[in-house]
Amino acid sequence: MLLQSPYQTYKRYRSLHTHKISALPIVILMPHSACNCRCVMCDIWKGNHNLKQLTEEDVQALMSTLKTLGTQQVLMSGGEALLNPNFFRLCEILKKEKIKISLLSTGLTLKKNAEALVNRVDDIIVSLDGDEATHDHIRNIPGAFKKLAEGISAIKALDPSFRISSRTVIHRLNYNGWPQIIESAKQIGIDQLSFLPADVSSHAFNREMVWDEKRKHEILLENKDLDELRSVIDYLLVNNKDDFNSRFIAESREKIQHIYSYYAAFYGYNDFPYKKCNAPWVSVVVEADGTVRPCFFHQPYGNIKNEKLDKIINSENAIDFRRNLDTFKNETCVKCVCYLNLSPGTML
Asked: Would you tell me how many other CB atoms lie within 10 Å of the CB of residue 127?
């Protein structure tokens, strides 16, 4: 857990109430635009021919803003961050300011990079889609599950206490194997796992256009699947009660039930699940080409190739965006699947 001073808490409070960023506890960087998986629910890999990556100079230029605004944690996202040949140099730059680094990874190259990861990264969040057959099918990479398991084993051999958690997108192709996902996570040494539904409504994940109905329904559960989804969730709430109690499953029982509500909302059975999010006030996303967004799902503010990060996030346009954003009514926010609510006093 990262501690913070009362002054940092005050600055985070000011950000929320003035809409001018005084504190930026979390920054998401995308070191590389490409991905080494071809997941059915994501289009990032379709842009692998148009490679972009953050450079050492890019990250060095960010450091004055991160230091001034008290950034405590950087999430290395993607694409696959480890595809950047200077990834560990970027980590060194951040570590000089004692910033915690979390890596979001497909897990395919963890074994090759195990020693460097243990030394330069604080924790890893991997993607897990199911048991071996399901995971490989969804990732569209033969042997993906085996490589993930070998990578986790290699890291744990070097440091058994090194934290590796997983995130699973629940959708049409894996919802009925949900119990097996949990068992697979235990078998390969995951410390904690988390679940969320599939985003099918936004421009995120390299979608040049929002998916049409046919593409959405390759991932969305069908109306006829909803009863089975409810039964699977009911089973988990009973059979895996110890996993909820121990927080091996990160979400509360209520949040797991929200995954049903999310899919049911597409068929008019209920509203999309209620959520609180203040991501644009406490974090920022910097993409591999330098594009700066308030979160993964909203339109860009600017680009660090053209202007310093602090000027971008506190530009008149950015402040107006936050001032006028009603996360309870905005269509993008209402359908969001991955949200952040960090109160001023919350420690990371």
From this structure: 21
Contact between 9 and 344 under an 8 Å Cβ cutoff? The reply is yes
The predicted model scores a pTM of 0.93
The reported pLDDT for the residue numbered 202 is: 56
**Residue 229 contacts residue 265 (beta carbons within 8 Å):** no
For residues 29 and 50, the answer to whether their CB atoms sit within 8 Å is no
Give the mean pLDDT of the chain.
92
Cis amide bond preceding 79, omega within 30: yes
List beta partners, residue 166. Answer: 126, 193
* Rounded-to-integer distance, Cα 166 and Cα 194, Å: 6
Gap between the Cα atoms of 39 and 100, Å rounded: 28
In DSSP terms, which residues pair with 169 in a beta bridge? 196
Residue 179: Cβ within 10 Å count: 14
Q: Half-sphere exposure (CA, 13 Å, Cβ side) for 310?
A: 13
Residue pair 24/338 in contact (Cβ under 8 Å)? The answer is: no
Is residue 254 classed exposed, middle or buried when 0-12, 13-18 and 19+ CB atoms within 10 A define those classes?
Answer: exposed
| Residue ranges for the chain with pLDDT beneath 70 | 1-4, 39-49, 202-212
Is the dihedral angle over the CA atoms 85, 88, 89, 94 positive or is it negative?
positive
Question: What is the DSSP secondary structure assignment for residue 81, as one 8-state letter?
Answer: G
